[in-house]
Give the backbone structure.
Amino acid sequence: MSKLVDIKGYWNMFGKSDFNDNDMWIGEILLYEDGWFEGIATDPNSPYTGDRFIFGVYHPEKLIELYKFAPISVSAPFVFHGKRDAKGYDGVFERIELFGSRPRGVSQIITQYAEAVRGNIEEETNELEKRIQGYKQSIMDATCKEFYVNAIAMRNRMCQLFLRNYEGIEFSLEETQQIMEEWQPVNDRVMNATTEEAIGLIKKMTNYLPDDDDDDLPYN
């Protein structure tokens, strides 16, 4: 069972919290009972008007970890980290690179349950499900697919980890060992990627990513 949630994200690359509608994206997500969500976002001020795939972990009133992907030829992938405050979920956002991520600024994410403002949302929910499946089948490139497949493999554990880290609950030795065992197949898939595939990904990313930081925006 899922809930339809409206979502809006703001960013500021200079570390200031004076967010505005020029640096913003909007979308909808389907939030599942375990805290996992998937959805579609668009960037109104970007030259690229197509759908972007967003997914991650969201525990209302506590935190959100949101991954945002467009085709790698359009934009680098980003991750937004947010903890609940008076207005929404504030935190930093990072650009995901081949061997890690790099901080790019601060962000604020605002959410609202759709049925609270629009009543009957069954048709809207069905339409979002179609858009999500359409993205996975027709738009999702190899970069996003590999990242998404690895995330899905750790879905249950990710939903627990982010929440427990937020609440400051430590892991026992047994739990740590179990996590490592569950994570191993994911690590193996990454490590078994061929050199040729890695070089191809680097070329795609470097062809897209300019040297000028002013162009390093979380949409393009």
Remarks:
- The longest strand covers residues 100-113.
- The chain is about 35% helix and 35% strand.
- Residues 173-191 form the longest helix (19 residues).
